[in-house]
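Could you please consider the sequence and fold appended to this message?
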Amino acid sequence: MRPGMRRTATVLFLVMTPLVTLSPSGAAQQVAYHRVAPKIYVPFDPNTVRVVHQSARLFTVEVPHGGYAFAPRIAPFGDAIVFIPAASTLAFTSVFLEPVRLLRIPGDAASPPAEVKGFAGGGPDAFSFDRQTRTIAFTCHIERRDPKQAETEICVVRRDGTGLRRLTRPLRSDESEHNHAAAPAISEDGSFVVYRRQYAGYLGTVRSDGTGLRALVHQAGGLTPVVLTRRAVFYERGGQVWRAGLDGGGQRQLTRERGEIGGLTADRDGTRVAYLVKESGQPAALKVVDGLSGAPVFTLQGVGGLVRLSGDGRRLLFSRRRPDRLGLYVMDLRTRDVLEVSEGVRGVEEQADLNDTGEVVVMVKGEGPPLVVAFLQDETPPFLTVEAPRQGTTVRGESVSVVVTYRDRAVVSGVDPQALRVFLNGRDVSDRLRKEPDRATGQLDRRLLQEGENVLEARVADRAGNEVRQVVRFRFQAP
């Protein structure tokens, strides 16, 4: 560690301040948030784990898990990390550094179908999960009763091991046993899955209950991992990036590159797409384009083989080979500021992922415990929703119900429920609400309301000081 960095780490260690609250997910467990930098809080005691790196902009720790880790993926809120620790197995942990839980397929699944023989693996695109990490879609080995049947299909299972189901089967009579289903991409709500059949040349889609199986895009040979967003599907066809609507319509080519394209990734809305281009004898170039028109947004030369866009499209994770080692970096696409997130991590590999805001990164290293988690500065306001009363509605009766939900998007700082403020027509009514870890509820009686239009304003901040507000206008009519 450099001398200046060592002094910074010492100062930061002295200012750690524990804050005890309930888990942001509303679970009964106690979570202690500790301030480890001016805008970084971590939801565990940093003295109980090995700190790999510490500075004013970055705090990195080892996840206490031995053995092997491959293809880690982090949930949008950072509250789940899924990875492959061994054959036929998925593993779960989180930024709370909970004990790793294994899900062996089919051994740990409840009432598994006899035809499902195991988790097929197959690379970093072998599984995906919905936004809440409740349902996982994955490649699965299938018992072949028909010689022409493919031995790898797409299955789904819930995180608790229930609901294991095979989803796919060949759609064409000429498909061979080598035409494996691969690259499952599940929708945010977990309702459907898009996947590929490489040799048959199509993208398929199926609902998570096993119905609605059909081909979505035909003649899509040479596919890369399928990238599914809220509004579109992105894939490689004929060596270029293509876009199609969620119904398979509106197919169009986005890129016209001369080199080999790989590493396709997109933000959650499909507004930005990033990929790697490699021409013969040249280092790879990283390109970001508009997800609708394909217009260039940004190009970075001389990168490695890893690229990931954060869900909000604001940050970019990529690798770059240095003379002495591999490095992983996060770039803020607004400011073009770059931070090496693998600082202090020995033997880091090109296996990493970042959460929805790009402020939590999970990495794989080759020495010691394989997983490390890096926390960046929290610069993202929490989610805040006034669920009741609804905008533009009319409320009749003796009172109005108020329901406000909130959650820290970065899971770096956590929302302090006591920081919630609710105003009705400019009057602070916060003390009339019952504040819980992820919501506040209460009743405001008619004496606080006025006939006609009323204005309700809610404000909340995370512990890093990022504030969000929402204003709802509704009408009140006395009985």
